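INFO worker-7 received task bundle
INFO bundle size: 2
INFO processing item 0
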Amino acid sequence: MTNLRTKDIIALGFMTFALFIGAGNIIFPPIVAQQAGEHVWLAALGFLITAVGLPVLTIMALSKTEGSIAILSSPLGKVASLILTVVCYLTVGPLFATPRTATVSYEIGFSPYFGNGNAALFIYSVIYFAFVTAVSLYPNKLLDSVGHVLAPLKIFALAILGVAAFIIPTGSISPAINNYVASPVSEGIVSGYLTMDTLGALVFGIVIIHAIHSRGVTDKKLVTRYAIIASLISGVGLTLVYLSLFKLGLGSHDVAPNAANGAVILHAYVQHAFGDLGSLFLTALIFIACMVTSIGLTCACAEYFSELTKIPYKILVFILVLFSLVMSNLGLTKLIAFSVPVLSAIYPPAIVVILLSFFWKKFNRPSAVIAPVTAISFLFGIIEGIKVTSFKNYLPEIVQTLPLNEQNLAWLIPSLIVLIICVVIDKVKK
């Protein structure tokens, strides 16, 4: 029986952490901190629940199913499980998340030097995805290339930024604004929810399990144990990064007053802390952060669709990368416009499936509990998706009065009610 060496376990944890941390993860906390002001740590608590807690739980859940979303969602039935799995992979893969890594890294790191023209973005995305392809073609080397090389580079850069946030403060704490005045925790929850890390965790599971297998570990209990350890290491890393970024944004009003987004705050802070070298540092950090995430997503999607379609893995890498390349050249604004409604619809059922997977053994008939709750969460998820489109005016007035509607969590209470009813019925009908 093969066991992982300590350094490989640590590398696995670093790799898992690095897969999660993309540009979006770095940008969100500073803007939350600035807007939350004196309520920042309450907002941070909510943020950590959904941006750290849920992804870690997802990896733990997947560790028991060999990284398979299909097995995790099997109580939904074959058709519903397949649809959920395919949609998750496409969403965080070639449709939205993977092309967004290229677009975001260009707009934040390189557009100040090369402009916002279509030609410059195209040339950059070709070079960017060439790197992604080169690494993704060899998934068995992922622990070496990402865990031992790219992940430490990303962690080193984040550590510099995190330490600087504490030793080079920017200014005074600003008053809370918007929803952070009355409900900082729930607003933080929604902000963390929008990082997409839970969906990312659903597809990264197979990458993590494959990395463990690549070291010759076949025992299921050991695979589960190592995956859980990796998720906990990544959880600690994510927490430290987020706390330092919250600290960075807390006093940022003096250097970036009323910032439109976290990127503005980051640009202003690195200029304040590091001078002209700050822009180059931020460019390198964002590039590596996005690159690692893109590699992980490409590998995960190629692995899954290779199993599903029997098309060779390497051919699928080229297909997925080419599609991502095309999508990335639509521009960030269009990508976000397309992705938000879809994410709003599929996030609730994904969360339900993940959380209820820990209670399978408690139910006499898991499908009779999980399927109805997932269905109702998806129904309300669709409503959440419509709310962020031009069709929102067609929704009935009652939708606006639903509990937690303003927090974009209107699906939560109906799902809990259906869960309670289904559990009672399940216990009665033994």
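INFO item 0 finished
INFO processing item 1
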Amino acid sequence: MGNVKLVMQGLIVLFVFVSVAYGAPGIHIRPVFEKSDNGIFDKNKEVHFGFELNNRLENPVEVKFTWQVVTDQKKSVSKSAPSTIEIPVDEKRVVSHAAKIPGPGFYKGTIICSWKGGKVNQTVQVGYAPEKLLPPLTSEPDFEKFWKESLAQLREIDPQYQLMHQQELSKGELNVYEVRMRSHGNIRVRGWYEVPKTKGPHPVVLRVPGYGSNMKPIGRFKDMIVFSFNPRGHGNSQEDIKGKPSNYWIRGLDNKEGYYYQGAYLDCVRAVDFLCSRKEVDSKRIAVKGGSQGGGLSFSTAALDPRISLCAPHIPFLTNWDLYFKTSHWPEMDKWIEGKESRTWQSTLKTMSYFDTMNMAPWIKCPVFMGVGLQDAICPPVTNFAVYNHLKGKRQYRVYPFNKHNVDKTFHPLVFNWMRKHFGLNPIQ
């Protein structure tokens, strides 16, 4: 989620592909998908796991291997009998395993290889009918009431908008401003506002940050406004909220009133308030875009504010907490719960349910384009689809089969062109 801290680094180490280092002698392994373009298998189709084995030893080698398949919660699905394959020097062979899968979800296939003098294993995740996953909502009876009251509290805060022209950044066809405003709790938040010098009104892309990230101007478009917004504690919005970003998500977690994400979600709504106050903004064409925490903020902003016309999250955080903590272990959370005798997982998850974007998904009516890293251990795909499958409007997604907590470089131009099409603008190359 943005600048990943030590806990996340530990998670990455736990789930990264295990292999012999590139360039060293041995059997080098990389995942391949022969039966699927993106590692996603349709319902009623056999699921295949595949790896390419590359012999970088000095002699031909006989490789023995077995397969193990588990759920994303590490429950055993199947194990194969041992097999053997001969691989000549500097040649590659693809081995695959067909598995019977118990139902929709995400599954990890591990190949365990051994040869005379060496051993290596590697794991890859695939998806089976992910659009059929529909976990039950976990919202409390007063969920909607809480957010109506929170939005009412926000409206009571005088935003006190300020625009500070940035002469050194205003080059070419854009004027750049630092924007300051007051949000929930009278907290000051800021962002970077890039406005084409051509006559408006213009469509807008509201960019929101990953966890602890610092949003900055991008200087990219001459026909769209870009508002790179930093909610409390991020980037240039640290005047009133200080501390290490690694602990933001547990701040105030004992109570839904005053929890960090109550303020952060409302900060993003206040950013939309600002945009709609500007004559150069076409308030009917506002998109929100972000990754990781920014993906969660994209969902929450679209849910809480119907003025959002497009939503483009990728590798989204802040969704389906019940399942999240079953697929991703956070020692930080264990430590926090143990910090007070009154804290329990049950009470903590109850508080977090108010900020679970899965529970907000039915409120989102605008089109959504989601990006998924299939090998993501930080924001697992199963949680991505938990919110996606509860959406009520038009939706589409793109899976990047070999990516972990990221999407590849093709995603962002793809999404921007999706926005531009909806906005009636020419595509970018």
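INFO item 1 finished
INFO post-check item 1: The longest strand covers residues 61-71.
INFO post-check item 1: The CA atoms of residues 208 and 294 lie 5 Å apart.
INFO worker-7 idle
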